[in-house]
Amino acid sequence: MTGLVPAERGIGETAAVDSLPEFVVVVFAAVTHLADPWFLFGLLAVGYWFAGDETAGSPRRAGATAIAVVTCAYAVVAVGKAWFAVPRPPGAMPPVDVPTWLPELLAGWFEAQVLSDGFGFPSGHATGGAAAYGTLALLYNRVWTRRRRLFGAGVVAAAVAASRVVIEVHYLVDVVVGVAVGAGVVAGGLWLAGDPRFRSRGSDTPHDPTAALNPTPAFLSAAALSVVAAGLAVTAGHTGEVVEAGIGIATGVGGAVGWLFVTGDEPPVPVRVVVPALALTGALWVGTYALANSLAVTLVATTAAVVAVVALPAFAHRGVDAVRHERA
Length: 328
Description:
328 residues, mainly alpha, 12 helices, 0% strand
């Protein structure tokens, strides 16, 4: 629907951020990493594997649901970017004005941060950050108080959204809409997962809402939305968006398949199991992005990696039980 979101949608924010000290811009370039997809999914995977009863009543269900909700968030972003297909601000294009006082290694990092291709609306970082930190605040409900968790999530989400404007890879409207979409995805994703706080009223809400969670509907919804995004991208000839949609399809399907092996009651995964699992899944994801021009490779590698991540608690638990049985 070309024209619904204009290409020139700034309201003067570019002039404002151009007046900021270089040091502030560099700091925000670092802050934006808090919602990089690799960082968010790494954070979510670690929480899913290691969280114990002190973090949530049903930590495995909470962790898998958080992964599913964030997958939904990225799927919605993929649909939006393929649908609106509007460019980023001119500041996201080369050349880059790198601060002269930055060391050479950091200069390369800074340049990579402030250069960004693809479409600009809505902001994937703002959407993913709001969805990830909002979901974590709601699901890991035994950490701190609810007010402190939500306040912390809001601060991080706002900082990430601001960082995208400060480093000039998004307009203000891109991140505002992204945060709003992320919040909406949290509500919708938790409803799909059966969170009674979004399905029940008042006293009907159980003491431990995480015990009722089932991430499968959210994973499958993410896959379905990503199929829509792929269709839009193919129709419009947006090759890069097709690959992004493919990653969404594979993550949604892989998450649903991986959850088939999990009961939801598994204990935390031992570190000795996580280390090789990280090496394997990391290699698969690196291979996915290195060969991102091949949709088939993207689909297979991403699906395998996500199945491994989600199913790991079940396989680790069964392996520990088998060892104990042999020793007995």
